[in-house]
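Researcher: Good morning. I'm working through a list of sequences from a screen, and I'd like to move beyond sequence-only analysis. For each chain I'm collecting a predicted structure so we can compare shapes side by side. This is the next one on the list. No need for commentary yet; just the structure.
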Amino acid sequence: MRIAVNKENEIYLFDQNDVLTPAIEIDESILPDDFFSTFAPGYYVYQDNKVIKNPDFVKPDSPSVEPTNMNNSLTAQAAVLATIQQMLMAQAANIAKLKQGGA
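Model: Good morning. Structure tokens for this chain:
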């Protein structure tokens, strides 16, 4: 398993697939039992080859869930991309039929 830490040794990211770079390679046996269920960036620190709860951790304020113009724009773009993807898939199917001699 790999973890990424900041300058204060707070763990802000982890990867069980060992592809995270740059990262610190650790054995999962040093993790607290509740690591995966309670993980939040900065909630744990890596000290002396141990993963412990961060005594200085402060839970961040919850972000607003009201839609913003940016969210609306992203939703619209996602819908356009989905339509384009469907069109490309239909075109690929038509090309495959033409290659097989069908019409």
